[in-house]
Amino acid sequence: GQYSKELLLKQSEIEGKVVSYPKSMPIAIKRAKGAIIEDVDGNHFIDFFAGAGVVNVGHCNPDILIAVKEQQEQLIHALDFPTENKIEAINLILTNLPVDMHGQYKVSFGGPTGSDAVEAAIKLAKMQTKRDTIIAFTGGYHGMTSGALALTSNTGFREKLTSLIPNVHFVPYSYCYRCAFRQSPGSCRHDCVSYLEDILENPHSGVPKPAAILLEPLQGEGGNIVPDNNYLEKLVSLAHKHGIIVIFDEIQSGFYRTGEFFAFMHTKARPDIITFSKGFGGVGFPISGLIYRKDLEAWGPGAHIGTFRANQVSLAACRAAIKFVNRTDLALHVGIMGCYLMTKLNELFRWCPFIGEIRGQGLMIGIEFVKDISTKSPYPEIVKVFRERCFQSGLLFEVGGHFNNVVRLVPPLIITTAIADAAISIMSTELRAAVI
Ligand code: PMP
């Protein structure tokens, strides 16, 4: 719309070029409710993007707004001083962990954004082990601050940066559709875990003993990739055999995105450190932090401080969001809606010769486009056209993947069947139009 264009122009003249999303979704936003965004020209969009996986309980969820208003009238900024609000938030987080983890973990808040939590996690792992090598994974995304960026595999993000943090070593993720070892899924003889085992156990690998292994239990920006069965368990047991700390970055896959509080809860794998952010701020209040095993308390008092850690309003929003999920059985709904979407997508997209894989868990779904099903050659060009057409028809989603060829569906978890059907109908029409 016209007014959107005007505002975009105005903003680009005064705000640095660091902004990214308006390029692919050129709208200025007026308001948002549930899973619907309204732009300044009065156009409505179905939001299958959820502010980068943040508004899991829906834009401006009324439960959260009430809690936030109450909190704002009482206390907003308290630094690290104890508050009932914070203690209750921590307890809620800890009690939503699997029972076998109860009593063994602590929470520590980072700064306002996800990258802050990643920085804190690698700092804690280094202090604890007194080592400094970190193993990270191809396709992984962890943020834009120096440490988090160094651990993010996409070299495009750090082309002009010559040094961030040293001693980061990337290994292949469990991405069966594009197996780095050219094995077929389910029957691999040499897999990504044995590769890592070789690195850790061969003194000639050139990799010093790592402090930590950092990965997303379900790779998000990398293309919503669900790792192979038992992959996380095998990885954790290998790491622990070598005294290496396992960090699961659940910043995107957490907060019920996959139908569990955290994605790793679909498995028996138990990490030493979990990073969280995004959905924990309820409807978009900034919050991030770590959940870590109590015996990893390597930092003394004041060793990791910051002015804006655990804002009281964000904590109140977090509490209200967890309570909302529990009250409405939202986790169950995520599983049901995830299956519904996957089934529909498989039915309606089956005719298309450019769809290599439809995958996901809960409401974290990826559709990978290829030029040819047998060569699996990535097809980012068609994804771009498809996304643009869907946008014109009122559906927003993000694109990602190792080759920018994956449509990433990450809607608010509260979507109804009616909204899912409307989104699928747009995708179905626009896929045909994009292909012809
Ligand atoms: N880790 C993961 C898995 C993420 O998806 C993101 C954000 N997309 C981050 C870390 C970084 O979070 P932030 O952008 O809030 O710094």
TrEMBL record:
Cofactor: pyridoxal 5'-phosphate
Keywords: Aminotransferase, Pyridoxal phosphate, Transferase
Claim: Transferase is one of the keywords in the record: yes
Organism field: Pedobacter terrae
GO molecular function terms noted in the UniProt entry: pyridoxal phosphate binding; transaminase activity
UniProt xrefs under CDD domains: OAT_like
Protein name: Diaminobutyrate-2-oxoglutarate transaminase
Gene3D superfamilies cross-referenced by the UniProt entry: Aspartate Aminotransferase, domain 1 (3.90.1150.10), Type I PLP-dependent aspartate aminotransferase-like (Major domain) (3.40.640.10)
Entry similarity comment: Belongs to the class-III pyridoxal-phosphate-dependent aminotransferase family.
Superkingdom of origin organism: Bacteria
